[in-house]
């Protein structure tokens, strides 16, 4: 029932924010997470009263929430924060879409909890500007995206190499041929992914650095124009005209500070995020793809023919189910639904390439 799902979502968020609070080094940020946990606890209670459903105290998190807490313990709690914020954004978008279809008015409670977090931070006199900037930086670079990239990277390697191995196995019954093709596909795919990731990160860094250099040249050549632009930016954020002009004037008086502010406000670039290593991203991409791609190849190290094909299919199906289950960390869907959906699509792709390989093999033999 959707009512139970709504309540469990709030219970899980309450649990995960509490986990974040317990493992947050900054005491002021920990307070924010505790307040968010209390908010989610209240939401769960409100839903339970609305639907007349009994929920025990303490509220019990789902298996998904416990797995996320374990991931945070092993890989860092920014992964948990990233998934939480992704979930809240999805909920907010869904509510906005539903209101648009029904024509109902928007509500303050519709906004994503990331906004609530920022409001709590801004409203607390104990949070300094530097801490606020650090917190917002974490929100932009937390591990939800990294964790998703890891899952999808493994999925790409598994599905593509599984299909390749099955295609070659259909065309040839030779163990060595299939094994060599599988390893070649693993290496080629992983190298392609790594190179693509390296180019993507490097190009993004170079573009941002070029824009930052142009901004410095504009600041040196026409500080008055940059001051007007900055005042307009403040004005567009709701700052009164006189105050916006005064703020812009104060900023422009210090060239180094002015450049940093213009880069952030005008270009939308956070210089701290340009320090990421393109090589590190490439290596990570290579490893993730390779881990998925090696799964369908493993049986061909030991067997050949139909036995190896069946073993490869079973092992790959298990891997696909695991990846489908991991995806539920972001979607909140049923593990069985997502797992078996992934298995069906993966096996279907492999069956098609196996059939094509069989036809090609027969044609070549004839």
> Rounded to an integer, what's the Rg over CA atoms?
26 Å
Give me the number of helical elements: 14
Order of helices and strands: HHHHHHHHHHHHHH
Q: What average pLDDT do the residues reach?
A: 78
What number of structural domains do the residues give?
2
Strand portion? under 5%
The secondary structure category is mainly alpha
Instruction: Tell the overall outline.
Output: flat
Structure summary, number of beta strands: 0
Question: How much helicity do the residues have?
Answer: over 70%
Low-confidence stretches at least 5 residues in length (pLDDT < 50)? 106-112, 120-125, 139-144
Description of the structure:
The structure is a single chain. With 366 residues, the protein is mainly α. The chain has two domains: 2-141, no CATH class; 146-366, no CATH class. The protein contains 14 helices and no strands. Helix 7 (144-171) packs parallel to helix 14, helix 8 (175-221) packs across helix 11 (255-265) and helix 9 crosses helix 10. The protein is flat, with a radius of gyration of 26 Å. The N and C termini lie far apart (58 Å).
